[in-house]
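tool_log.txt
---
The assistant was asked to compare two proteins side by side. It first ran the structure predictor on the initial sequence, then on the second. Raw inputs and outputs are pasted verbatim so the downstream comparison step can read them without reformatting.
(1)
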Amino acid sequence: QVQLVESGGGLVQAGGSLRLSCAASGTIFSFNAMGWYRQAPGKQRELVATITRGGSTNYADSVKGRFTISRDNAKNTVYLQMNSLKPEDTAVYYCNYERLSGLVYWGQGTQVAVSS
């Protein structure tokens, strides 16, 4: 099992910044990728950003140039730096951890609210 604990969410004004953290613990092996997804009320969960074992990153078009995903291997932690936040970024943000086998674990989520 892998446990994921997200932190860093909150309420911020449009144009502001937040940094989300996701710490992984448990049986950490066969890591393939970690990522951030979000789900707004009434909408499906969508990809925000991912980072692979090799360090390759991928971003949703809506956040390119504003969000940056990074990781600290020593701490088994992935970060999402979110700048120039917009009201449409409001959502619950979820961290996930994918093994090479394809098995995926999810965190409990952290709320991000951006006021206009």
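(2)
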Amino acid sequence: QVQLVESGGGLVQPGGSLRLSCAASGTIFSINRMGWYRQAPGKQRELVATITSGGSTNYADSVKGRFTISRDNAKMTVYLQMNSLKPENTAVYYCNADRFWSGSTYYLNYWGQGTQVTVSS
């Protein structure tokens, strides 16, 4: 059974930092792209950052220069380092794994349960 387990969320003051982690488990072969999305109350889920197995990254304009995505392919883990956090970054952050095989099943899009990030003084 495939699982994406997120960790690292919490409460932080404006200007602070957090590091999110997402570990994929199960019989998985080479996840093509992993990423982070977020959903604030009353808003649609939106892209934060993605990274391919080759290391190509993509960021939302609002987080460029403050957030850094990275991954460890051997551990099937993706990280999101978030610096200079702002109150508007408050949201549930979801891990995503795109296009991978697990046994005989091909997954196009798979989501974690989400981790809450709250930026407040």
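---
observation on (2): The mean pLDDT is 95. The two ends are 40 Å apart (CA to CA).
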